Structure prediction request, 470 residues.
Amino acid sequence: MDTVGVLGGMGPLATIDFMRKVLEATPAARDQDHVPMIVCSLPQIPDRTAAFRGDGDSPLDAIVACGRRLQSAGADLIVMPCNTAHLWFDDVQQQLQLPMLHLVDAALREALDLAGSDARMGLLATDATIASGLYINRRLPDAPPPNWLLPTAGEMLELVMPGIEAVKAGRLPDGQALLAAAARALAQRGADVLVLGCTEIPLVLDTAACGLPVVDATAALARQVVARCRDANRA
Amino acid sequence: MDTVGVLGGMGPLATIDFMRKVLEATPAARDQDHVPMIVCSLPQIPDRTAAFRGDGDSPLDAIVACGRRLQSAGADLIVMPCNTAHLWFDDVQQQLQLPMLHLVDAALREALDLAGSDARMGLLATDATIASGLYINRRLPDAPPPNWLLPTAGEMLELVMPGIEAVKAGRLPDGQALLAAAARALAQRGADVLVLGCTEIPLVLDTAACGLPVVDATAALARQVVARCRDANRA
Prediction:
């Protein structure tokens, strides 16, 4: 079976969440049925959002160094369970020369399958993820461009960013209250489905908590990893 | 900061549980405060309990190979969040030539700190862990031998092993009822503290559920990892 290399630690809780979602996506009756994973959880990688804003060092070299560790340890395939890190996806892939799966593609594919290509897709993500166009500019080769609904700038500053910070700091009830309020605002403006484009958000938000079908980008990537590794196993 | 290498996948859920306990044991306000970890979760390592019983291949070569991957990826220190794998601890350490922390030592240290060296320590663990002497033969260099209390053979067959199986199968209330009954029997025979020497047991048993102070060996190892890496950081 192919060994998945996980470029992790961005943040460390999101890495664990991704690993758990890979287990949940695997039909397994015993330990030995599970996907082999090598995980490099290096929380010292420079902050992605700060770098995007021009307030900090680029994380590219640290991400590539982490990828080389995974390569040394025998990874066949690389994933990054961090949305913002995907701003450097093309550079990382070019330097590592290993197959990589793209988190946003996995999320868009599931959103289209769930809600159809006419659906209005609400997006909850960090300021950097939204402002960089990581989601809104991404196209699947065989699908029309999605119809996006974004949080307002006020909602970003008062609900979404403080909500994500609260989750990162372990204050989960606070994070849930703030992010659910942002989700309700998107639902009121007509969102049919919510794409959760930040690894921290699904830790506190699901369909029950926000009253809309949700696509968890982390879980979508996990399901794609399992499908890919099991295909490689059968091949 | 030192990078911890985690020899994982034995089983994969226990690996994730250990990683989460490392996060919980870390005083951190942001990603960059967390301990860097490289995790090799290779569920294809042969079954440790079967090997102990003489019913399967030795896991030693696979564990060492997993350790070498961690070494290639830059781990400074190795831990194995699996009790039964510690039957091969000395061989693994000898072949890897890297510092390793011992799960049982971490648990014994916490039990001594919690209950004192005169305390009677009840042990809940798998048949293989208990019968192999993994806990009862282990000595801390600076402490007298613990005063152990074990479940009876009848309690092992009727309560402890079915309780662990129930947890592994996701039947948590059944598992809790069985394991709490085994804990009460140890308490009635005079146990002052309970050492939980199996990664599944702390998922359903805590001080509230069994009326005794408990030591979770996985959490004890996690706390020792954090203390060690943060010391290395300050040094």
Remarks:
- Residues 217-234 of chain A form the longest helix (18 residues).
- Chain A touches chain B at residues 1, 3, 9-13, 15-16, 19-20, 23, 30-45, 47, 69-70, 72-74, 168-169 (CB under 8 Å).
- Chain A has a mean pLDDT of 91.
- Chain A has two domains: 4-102+219-234, 103-217.
